[in-house]
Amino acid sequence: MSSPNYTIPKEGSLGLLALGAKGLKAWREVRNGKTPIIEPDKEKKSDKKKRKVLVVGWDSADWQIINPLMDKGLMPTLESLVNKGVMGNIATLDPPLSPMLWSSIATGMAPYKHGILGFVEPDPTTGKIRPVTSTSRKVKAIWNILSQKGYKTHTVGWWPSYPAEPINGICVSNKYTEFSENIDTPWKLPNEVIYPETLNSIFSEFRIHPQELTDAHILPFIPDAAKVDQEKEKSIQILAKEIARSSSYHAAATWIMENEEWDFLAVYLDTLDHTCHSFIKFHPPQLPGLPDDYFNLYNDVVSSMYRYHDMMLERLVKLAGEDATIILLSDHGFYNNHMRPTWLPEHFAAPALEHRPFGVLCISGPGINKDERIYGSSIIDITPTILQLFDLEVGKDMEGKVLTQAFTEKQTIKYIDSWEKVDGASGMHPTDKIVDPWASTEALNQLIELGYVSPLEDDDRKNLENMNAETQFSLACSYIQFQKYDSALTILKELYQQFPEKNHFALRFAACLEHTGNTSETREIIEHLRKDSKNKLPQLDLLEGSILLKENKPRKALECLKKAEGVSLHLPHFHIKIGQVYSKIKRWSDAQRAFEMALKIDSDSPMAKLGLAIAYLKMEMLEDAANAALDAVGLQHELTSAHYYLGEALYKLGEYERAVDAFNTALSQSPGMKKAHEWLIKIYSENKINPALVEQHQAFIKDKIKGTVYVVSGLPRSGTSMLMQMLHAGGMPILTDNLRQNDSNNPKGYFEYEKVKSLNKDKDWVVEAKDKCVKVVSPLIQLLPGNFNYKIIFIRRDINEILTSQQIMLGKNPKDFPVVLQQAYQKYVEQSFTWMKANPNVSYMELNYTDVVNNPLEQSENIVSFLGVDLDIEKMKRSVDGTLYRNKAVVD
Question: Cα(515)–Cα(509) distance, rounded to whole angstroms?
Fold first, then answer.
């Protein structure tokens, strides 16, 4: 049955709905011909010692849309909160699916822990698909913890919260605004929508039906609404539904605040998200190809919905009072400019591609900093921060952290192993009601196979199979985000094998394999997708470029990425990867241009900001480097490298105290970062600050950090000395005693260290090689001690050339070498590679002697890429003398 057209009558007031319960009552009195009386709010005695927290969730709210409106004075309530508190971006999780995200916000835990993994789930009884429910959440939400501690706690509209939980307060669940088809149809609240159900009759009165609205509610959004052909366009019906839903939840929340005691109230509105999915394509600037009449008709809808939310927020802030802490946030943002997707692939989570990875966060109230920015927050940090506001312990099993920078005073954080282990009434559903819907479906299938239950219809079975796959995909994404790659790979491999035609499964599987270093299987998937995919997938070129970069072939990686340039120019990740390649080969101005191009596409990319900071730093553009690094950590606080490079830039600017803070922050995230310890030693020593701190960092390096030994290896006369010469020319510290002088066989020097020859007897000298490069020939490499990290450059050369060179060096007939030497040397090489592959503290790269002689620039770039050390590539290239590649006395 199609929805009836929305008739626009000539009375009504959007402003009255924004007042909430009282305004709704007054508006309905006007509709019935009565004179409305809006009673003043009752004065409530303020208990200054009592903490109250109001959480307002605006799904998909985005500062990129909000800031221009605040600048024009069109969102005064939020602007006031911003001026009185802290504000900043808040990072979302992957994938950005609202039920997953709001459950993480409410629990402080990752989706793989709390169990909400999508929009739908199977009904454990019928096996059919149903909307996700609160009974599937495996852990306590913040309202359960607060209920357990005796706080009066209320929730309105949270997703998912149906069936309503029996908390210490009122729960208005997310099924509250499921409307009847027609306003004349009886519209009874279903069971378990409200807790306690004794309040059903009261909350029934605060629901607004879309067909109840008037022109005064529609025209502020679509001034020319009369021009809409409602037989063809459903835009007014969509808009009316969203206004009615948000206004209904708002009325319920305000009634609670006006009539009930409360310590904590969380109200969630998904209207901005729904409105953007329907109308963001009409939001300014006008997209190419969008007809003028459509743009002119709908271009103000999104902005108007934000303004209406600000009107509702005004009422909530007033009712909360001056002593309440208000947290306003979204779960993600919404692409609203040139980043808006022009098409979406065909899978259930495709609308999430319209979501920007950064939402909004604003905190205001007693003890909160005023008119300050907050950096590096994530949606999983909200529950720990609320617990801190109530002076309660944070669960150690929560991934989130307390946003201490929001507070005026230094915070002491208390911890508890897990709130899940705390007994007592928490307002969660009874244990017999909390189920894993997918596990229950397995049990149902077993009963079907046994013949006790009728089989599912084909459509139901297929829907269930597809949704189970997508749910498992979301679970794998959550594992990846929290660095549980083995668990993710197990799931993704099974999905790829079961659904080889689903590109998003294959791409994520390949990306996870590439991240964990499985390049051969990654390449197999890339080839499969290149062969079978109907569309060009630029992600494949990004993956292949990443593999080549990990294989220390930056020039080849660049060639691969450049091939995809035509179809990838709109992807910020493409330009970031190109920038990273240029950084590997020290082409800093090219890297700068690539990162700047990425930021033109997505101005909030932390990785592009980080790359730009490094490029600026290397080009001695110090203030620009510091600003870019600050921007990067502002977007993603847990970006250790950005803190480190910020410290380096600040030191060179002479801002030593700030540099110390930056390096200490880097060490708080990565205690083993040796370079940060060394910088702090340098700063403390130069400025004569607390010698004890110098000793502390020196001791840490000595006792806790293994250190890296750089090794050049290969068979004697394979080119090892040539590599040592290149590294020395490039600025690499070399461990050599210069006892063996250069000669006609090696006119540029051997760079050997005599003690290496006695590795089978003495290994103590290896400590001298920390952070230096030493030459160790292949037969001895397996004798290196295991208490260091090694980066080994192994050079190969034709075995006949090696033996010829050795014979000449010994003054023997070059053609008269024993054949048995060939077999023995090949065995040495095989054993060397077996040892290098078997030891996790060893990373290695393989070079070919002829390649180095013929292409010294490219191979120098590859070497620097592998070592990760800042060397002069041009000098390395110039050190290679091709004339020394001789048939008789061949330089090694």
Answer: 10
